[in-house]
Design brief:
Layout lengths: L28 H23 L5 E2 L3 E8 L17 H11 L6 E3 L2 E4 L10 E3 L2 E5 L13 H13 L16 E8 L2 E6 L5 H8 L8 H4 L15 H15 L18 E5 L6 E5 L13 E7 L2 H9 L5 E4 L4 H9 L2 E6 L4 E6 L6 H7 L2 H9 L3 H7 L5 E2 L14 H4 L7 H9 L3 E2 L6 E2 L20 E7 L3 H15 L4 E7 L1 H7 L14 E7 L8 H4 L13 H12 L3 H14 L2 E4 L1 E2 L2 E6 L2 E2 L16 E3 L1
Parallel strand pairs: 2-11, 18-19, 18-20
Antiparallel strand pairs: 1-25, 3-4, 5-6, 6-8, 7-8, 9-10, 10-11, 12-23, 13-23, 14-20, 14-21, 15-22, 16-17, 24-25
Helix pairs in contact: 3-6, 10-13, 17-18
Amino acid sequence: MSVFQSLSGFVAAGLRGSLGWSGRWHFTSALGLVALLAFSANTYAASVARGVSSEPAKSGGTVTFALPPGFNPNYILPIEPAAADSVQQFNFFQFLLYRPLYWEGKGASTAIDPRLSLAAMPIYNGKTVTIHLKSYKWSDGKPVTSRDLEFFMNLVKANKNLYASYTKGLFPDDVASYSSPNARTFVLHLKQNLNHAYFTNDELNLIQPMPQHVWDKTSVNGKVGNADRTTAGAKKVYAFLDSQAKKLTTYGSNPLWKVVDGPWKISSFSSTGPVSYVPNRKYSGPFKAKISKFTELPFTSATAEENVLRTGGIDYGYVNPTDTSVQAALRSQGFSIEPWLPYQFSYIMLNFNTSNATTRAEFRQLYIRQALQHLVDEPGYVKAFFHGYAVETNGPVPINSPFADSTNKHPLYPFSIAAAKQLLSSHGWNVQSSGTVCAKPGKGSKSCGAGIPKGAKLSFHLLYYAGYLPVQRSDETFQSNASQVGIKITLSSEPLDSIFSDAPECKPSASACKWQMGQYGGWTPFGYPVVASFFLVSSSLDSGSYNDPITARYVHATIYSNSSGAIKHYQDYIARQLPALWQPSPDTQVSAISSKLKGVGVQSPTLEIQPETWSLSR
């Protein structure tokens, strides 16, 4: 599953619990990491202190939470299409209603939290995986059973090509069969042995029980049955549910969505305005809601959010990390200001399949990707635009991951306009500020490369998501740096949801394949940090169509091998090959949390929120 993110900064794309927000930023890598660790310690201490405050709390009341700029929940069904596959979509909306089988995010770590999971940790016996469900109930009083897991699996299997988290050969293709020996036991038989950490964190975490006793039908007035147990029936059931999920205005009234197993139920929904929730009084989890209402507020920009925050209209919001005067004013009003630390890598996606054949050929030349990466001034962006609230991205494993090696902790292609110019000049380009031109076409080591004709110019269009100034300033600087070596970068921005639609995975001949560079944000690789769905040709999330067989081999090695060297080879090769341009990963946001709000605890690096643990002081 995928997910995009950085709240007041980006929205991310990646595995579910994957698209942290979609972008990040920072200063020098060494100082940035030191600052990150210092912030982590301070944030943890502040969060713990806030959570155990001796100030008496009261039951009831409404808590308001600011959504990231440009984000509105827009899809409720757990089997999501690519256009709805973002971290915010799950963590700030769907997970409040429908819990994942395994909850990723435990305190300040990305580990699975057994307390909040719907099942005990899986038991592996060769290629057999056994899952024992806990005693959870749906809001209508019916138990959550293995039949609800089977229902999810049947619908995913029959409609996998419509499922954003589908990667050919992986989930659900790698599951040979599954069964329900009893109501609380679910057994999967794998086609071959898999890395246990990978399968648990990156595949089992995709499973969400769905209320089969309510949803297993093919029309509004149809009778609930077992239609999902045939492929044809499962297709019809999904088509019906998907059609209902696209009717956003009915989210607060449609009986389908009133049966939930999460701690919250929708009380009112607007596709452009606030979304409010009330407690699910039959929630079976360890924390029962103390507040009587939880409301999420959407904003078109961080500035719009800040205006409401300063008037006291938001309990949990975010601030511009560079505006110290606003932070001071909010502190005087009783707000704590706390960075929400990231766990992700951020990037600009390159379209290797663009319908412009010349541009496609250019991106397929490693030296051109290297030259473009040399024009990305990550340390400068972090310092000037993110004011230290970001960390560098150097590869597909976050630098603060326990799996990150030296290759991912330090830049292989540091900012250097001279290095970019040298790469182009040595490969047959006539570098000039008025426009760099291919002077020596051909496949030789000192030529422009296959598919690039004589006279071709380096000119690209970069589409980035609107609403976050540090990203805009970073891309404007990238544009300026590129112009110094004769590369023309044309910039345009639009809302995040539009970028997902306008920069899709595509075939070269398709009209939708004209996009060249797209900045969605970042990817949060939870648990075992291999992002198969980002780098494999068979994935709908590989919108860049990188399609490199060597990368695929390294990805597969991390999935099917328990060798400690597999993850190292994976991250080192991808960091060097640049399937995307690495960008700074900003803090998810700099949160402003009212002193009235208790129980927030540590802000999760996986971006989950748990308003059921929150309360308001008297």
